[in-house]
Structure formats: C-alpha cells, structure tokens
Amino acid sequence: MKKTHAPIFLVILALSVSCSNTRGDVATIVTSSPDVKSFSHKFTFHKSNLVDGDPSTSWQVRTPRNGVGEWIEFKLKRSMNIKGLSFANGFQLVDPEYGDLYFLNSRLRKVRVCLNGGRCDEYFIQDQKTSAYLPIDAKNVETIRITFLDVYSGSRWANDLAIGEIEIVEAQSVVTIVLLILVIAGSIVGGLMFLGRMKSGGSEQ
C-alpha cells in the first residue's frame, strides 16, 4: 500500500499560518538603558532575548528603582494590525546553582503600551509564569513602546527587572482565516482517507 504524507504536510502548513514570528517582524529594539551584564558566565541578558522564542532566556535592566520608569521600543519591519501582546514575565528558568530565578529577580506588574508615539493604554500583569495576554486591537502599527510603571520585587536581585519574552500577536485577515480553515479541513479529510486506506489494506491481509 502506498503511503501518503499529505496530512502531515497540511498540519505543518496550518501551524505555520497560525503562528506568529515576532523576531521576523521586529526591525530594531531600542531600550532606555543598556543591556545588563550577568554576574555569571552562564547567562546573557541581551535585548534580542525578548524575541528569541525562548522564555527561559531574559532581557534585564538594573536600576535603583527596580526598572520602574524604564522602557523598550519595538520598531517593526512593516505596518501591522495588532491584536495583542503576549508576555512571558520574569526570568523563567530554574538554575541548579541559584534555584528558581523567576522569584529572585523583579517582574513586571504594570505597563503602559504606546503605539506609533500616540495612543497609550495601561495594563496590569499578574505575577505568574504562564504567559500574560494584553489585548490591543490596533491597525497600522509601526512602533510599540512599553514603559514599566510598577514591578513585583525580586527576593534576591530586586534591582534587576527581567522579561523572558514578548510576542506580537497579529490580527489575521479574512483571507488568512479562510485559508487556515481550508488547510485544517483538508488535513482532517486527508487523515480520514489515510486511515481508511490503512484499514482496507489491513483487512486484505
């Protein structure tokens, strides 16, 4: 019996359509303070960690006010319709030497998000390791500035504010949504046909 890989291909295609690529969407990242140098050779806190797709890495800022008043700004490669932002707060790594770094460093509690140098909204972020979603719903966004208004203080390095990941959630166009539905439907039909052929082949033995 000839095998088909169409269902697998369609699943991969569906995932590629639905998932965003924040690293690919960001042209530059500007911060109010320079990157912090780690006390340990094991870690780096470069601003590129904000969009590397890995919440266990982090960008950090070190100030006497625990990062309050600091900001980061994303300059996008293209004008985007934004649905929201997803935050992986803190330094989400359990280290064999230092322990749970999430609680040892400070985390975001309240932020102000400004788009294109104009519209601004404020958001509270719960102190949790799961991603926090900030609804935005804005069109033609080219710059996103996030200012830190308040923090949860770290138990060991209170002056070090850590952010693991920020994902830009793009609003999907009607065409993209229809394409995604068709891809998923095709994947389901292809999978059912594949299972049917497997059962038919098994019954002939």
Radius of gyration: 22 Å
Domain count: 1
E-strand count? 9
Look at the structure and give the mean pLDDT: 83
Strand content: 35-45%
Give the helix proportion (percent range). 25-40%
Unreliable segments of 5+ consecutive residues: 1-6, 8-19, 173-177
Instruction: State the separation between the terminal residues, measured CA to CA.
Output: 11 Å
CATH superfamily: Galactose-binding domain-like
Number of helices: 4
Say what the CATH topology is: Jelly Rolls
Coarse morphology? globular
Level-1 CATH class name: Mainly Beta
Name the helix and strand elements from N-terminus to C-terminus, one letter apiece: HHEEEEEHEEEEH
CATH architecture: Sandwich
Largest sheet: 7 strands, mixed
Write a structural description.
The N terminus is likely disordered. It is globular and about 70 Å long. Strands 1, 2, 3, 6, 7, 8 and 9 form a seven-stranded mixed β-sheet that branches. Strands 4-5 form a two-stranded antiparallel ribbon. It is an alpha+beta fold and 205 residues long. It has a single domain, classed as Jelly Rolls. Strand 4 and strand 5 form a beta hairpin. It starts with 5 loop residues before the first helix and ends with a helix.
